[in-house]
Amino acid sequence: MWALLAVGLASVALAVLAAVASRYQPIGNGEDLSFAFPGLPAGKGFRVVNNLGGFHQDVYVPPQRGTFALVATIMNSGTHPVTIVSASPPQGSGLWLAGAIRYSTPGMDGSNQIPPPTSRVLRNVELAPGQEIFIGFPMRMWPCAPLGRWQGIPTFTVMTRYLFFTHTVDLPWFIFGDSVLMRLPGGKPGQKGVTCALGTTLANLPTAPPQNRGSADGRHQHPHLQRP
Predict the structure, then answer these.
(1) Among 5, 62, 89, 194, which lies 20 to 30 A Cα-Cα from 169?
(2) Cα(first)–Cα(last) distance of the chain, in Å?
(3) pLDDT value at position 119?
(4) Would strands 180-183 and 58-60 be described as parallel, antiparallel, or unpaired?
């Protein structure tokens, strides 16, 4: 009887532990904002907008040519280490991934630069309690956009693992719940009412995935955007 009682208590304890572990998800945004990432080309013309009062800030990304970096930070605010299994950039917004997603840790190689000077491919990275890492997304975009049409891209996605449990989490880009703001993609150089990244010509337009090429349908328009 005592043996059965011990087994029963152990089973209950394991069930409680599993229930707690299955809900443990301490990943949130880090505290640093950066527009550059080591080893990835920096975007051109990025700037902070919608930042009156200092309690919110969005980042405006104008049309870009070639590969550029979108940078985010994530932090483990919990009491136990978790593993960052993978990360995913936004989809269906005129953006597409142009290479392996990178990560970098503040203070790596003895440097306190933000972001630090070295990076590695993001794959099953353990994040200690209180630790912050930078994520670098190498992205491409359609380099032209109609004037007056906008979209807000509020989140990117991170998959985490703790013990045997995984979570997929949508995180805002920065600590105040901020968005990446872009013009809706579409059009070509020379078309009326279309703006393009500097140096864009019909000859050097990119080959975009079919779902991202041409005019967008406006589903991601940002109605409260303060125009940059």
Answers:
(1) 62
(2) 73
(3) 85
(4) parallel
Length of the chain: 228
The domains of the chain are located at 26-212
Strand partners, 74: 29, 133
Q: Which long-range contacts (CB under 8 A, 24 or more apart) does 64-67 make?
A: 64/140, 64/141, 64/143, 64/197, 65/143, 65/197, 65/198, 65/199, 65/200, 65/204, 66/41, 66/140, 67/40, 67/41, 67/98, 67/99, 67/138, 67/139, 67/140
Distance from C-alpha of 152 to C-alpha of 222, rounded to nearest angstrom: 5
Tokens of 14: 């394991």
CB 171 within 8 A of CB 77: no
| CA–CA distances in Å: residue 212 to residues 25, 113, 153, 216 | 33, 35, 15, 8
The yes or no reply on domain 26-212 and CATH 3.30.420 is no
Q: Which two tokens stand for residue 137?
A: 């997304």
pTM: predicted TM-score of the whole model, two decimal places: 0.79
